[in-house]
Structures are given as C-alpha cells and as structure tokens.
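Build the 3D complex.
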Amino acid sequence: MEFDVIICFEIHAELKTESKLFCPCATKPGAPPNTQVCPVCAGHPGTLPVLNRKAVEQCIKAGLAMNCAIREHAKFARKNYFYPDLPKGYQISQYDEPLCEYGYLEIMGDDGEPYQVGIKRIHLEEDAGKLVHSAKSFERSEYSLVDFNRAGVPLIEIVADHTRNPVRSVEEARRYLEGIRQVLRYIDASDCIIEEGQFRCDVNISLKPKGSDQFNERVEIKNMASFKAVRAALEYEIKRQSDILATGGTVAQETRLFDEEKQVTILMRSKEDAPDYRYFPEPDLVGLHISQELVEKIASQMPELPSVKAQRFVAAYGISKADALLLTRERELSHYFEEAAKHCQDRKRLAIWTIKELFRILNENKITVEQCLVPPQDFGRLVQLISSGEITEKIGKTVLKEMVDAALSSGKPGKGPGQIIEERGLKPITDRGALERLVLEAMEAHPEAVEKIRAGKPEPVNFLIGQIMKKTNGRAHAGRLREIIAEKFSS
Ligand code: ZN
Ligand code: MN
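Done.
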C-alpha cells in the first residue's frame, strides 16, 4: 500500500528585540538565570503589560516576507494553562484576530518545480520561562529549576495551512524549515539559532492511501530540537502510521513526543486529554489598529528577499541558478560576493572561487564569512589576478590561505593579494626561455616519460608538467608548458 503524506508545521521563532514583549526587561541570551526579570514578566498581581512596538513591526515584517495579508485589526488573547515555567498561569497570545494571515512560502517541490506552501497565520505571543532539570532526562531528575529570563520574550508563531499546498515529504519539510529560517534571518527578525531555542517547531502529520481523498487523523509531534530530529521523527512517524494503515488499523488523533535517544515517537496524550486553553480576549491590552501607512513603511524598508536576490544574481552576474542559490543562502555571504564582484570582472570564476575555495576555508576554520576578516575587495582582486593570468590558480589558493591565516591570527585584515605576491616572489614564470629550460630539464630527468610520449602515449605529458609545477611551486604557466612540450615532440 502506498500513501500520500501531509505535513504541517507550527514554528516558534524568537524575535530580535532589545526588550521583552510587555515589559522593559532585556532579551539578551546567555545572561545568568533570573537576572532579566521584573514584576510584569514574573506575573506579579497588579502589574500591567505594555506592548513593544518593535515586536509588532517585526511580526508584520515576517508576515510581508511570507506573502501574508496584514490585518487592520488584531487583538491579544489569553491562553490558559498551568505549568511551572508560566508565571501568570496564562500566555498572552493571539487567537481569532492574528496580525498576519493567508500567506505562503515558495520552496522547490520534490518534482523540481516551485511550490507555494500555504501559511495560515503568523501571530505574536510571549515565550514562557525555561525549566532546567537536575539530570539530562526529565524522568531521571530529582528536581527542576526555573529560569524566567525567557518569560515574556517576543515570539512569532508561524502556522502552516493544511488545506493549501501542504508539505508532502520529508525532503520538502527540510526545504520549508530552512526556507522559513532563511527568510527570518534575511529580514533580521530573528537569528533563529536552533541550539539557543530561538527556532522551535511542532509538526502535524497525516497519511492517506494514494488516490483516495480521505485523510486519516492528524498526529502531532512535539519536542524536536534540531532539523535532524525533525527528519528522524517524520521518517519514524510515516513508517509507524503506514504500518498501522496497511494492516487495517486506524491512526488515532494524538500528540506524541520525539525521544531523541531512542529515535522513536512516544504517546504523550490522546485527543480526549487535549488541553482546553479557554482562550479569551486579553482585558489588559487594547485592540491593535494597524494603519496602511505603517504596513507600507515596513514594506518599503524590506530588504531584498533571498529568492529575488538569487534571480538577480543569475541575470546580473551571468552565473548558474545553482550557484546563485548557494551564494544567497545567507545575507552576509551574498553581500560579500557583491562587494567582491566590484573588483573582479570574471564573475563566473568569482562564484566558483567563493563556493569552492572560500567555503572550504570557512568550513575548515568553522567561521562565517564576516569572521574570516578578509575584505571582500581583496578576495575580488585575488580572483581577478587569477583570471587575467597574473598568477596561477595554485598560487591563488596559497595567497587566499595566507590572507585568511594572517587575518585570523592578528584579528584584523592583513596584506592584500598584490603585496603578498610581490613580497613572496609568487609572480608566475612567463619568460619563454625560462619555461623551455624547465621543460628540457624535466625531459632529461625523466627519460622513461619521454620514451612513452614518443611511443604515442599522451599521459606522461601531465606527469612532466606536474614535475615542473612541483619544482616551481606552481609558478609555471601550465598552458604554455603544454605548448612547448607539444612543439618538442612534433619536431
Ligand atoms: Zn520583565
Ligand atoms: Mn504558540
């Protein structure tokens, strides 16, 4: 039996604001526990919330970036439940009038075509505090401590729409999550650092036999702390539900937890035990009126989004779509490339050098493009020198490594490529006589290679060039060497 899959995410992302959603407490991560707390976010009686304007603007920005309609009237609601990390006994969230609704995010579908995944709503709400258990697992803990630094930090919740182009596979799920995260980082609404809990998701999944239009009950999975965990949870759950359906069983509507250690989902609660949050309008906050002027102002300040930027890169720099997608993955990286491109005419080579050479060095040093401290103009100039034949590719790699190493060890940009090449005598050997002498020397040193070439085998030509390159530290021009060798054997 084969099944179609519907996957719907609910994503929580922490917004980048100086202060919390309803009080002036700082939101900076990493502070000692309970040092960013006040009577408002600690839920003391008699305190009143005051809405953070920046958080509202960030939420609208996220809505616009994900093609949502921004509601003219929005309001806050109380979501009531009891948990030790929730000091007020309710969370201020949005219910029937969220800030943003009816949006979509375009991803690449598994068929290679663009696919607009429906987004039902994006609303603004406050985060809860954080429980810190005495042991690694909750079960083995003797006690838990609570840190209220996170209580009241602004969140947006992005809810996918299961009726409009839902995600259909584990791979699409990955592209959707990465796409949302990329957009939020581009517009500077959230850093989305998963390890810091700034980007968290729950997922609903249901199956139907291929060809049928009757979907089975949805199962919600919570507690996935990484993209890897999401993939494992989805794969496990698709298998579990297909096995039940294939043997004639029925899937129950329930909420399950992903157990990272055992890589399985386990039952958390059935439909009957689902909490009733008794939502009601928040009486301490007035309704929000979002003016058209405000929406237009935010829209006018919106940075270029990654999908648009990738298209522009293809047109402006004549590079491939695949390269453009890689170069626009992060906003800083795309900016670096554009700055470098101002100093390099050969954009195709620049793209390849960024993706192959620069990425490799960044990965090796586990740093971002900003942290490598090599100014983009120096990188652009270096690639230009290679392109114009001033230096060989091999020398280029040596110079790039030197520039990065010098910058990393001194903490500031070092010498430019021109100066390094000059000082280190890395200029290529272009003199015809010198190249000829090198070829003759190599032929003398390797008579067996010469024999083979005479006998009509072409492979030893590369061997001879390799020997000369070794001797000259890559400074000889491979193309010219090849010409000279060809001449020697044709006469
Ligand atoms: Zn506070
Ligand atoms: Mn929520």
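Residues 227-246 form the longest helix (20 residues).
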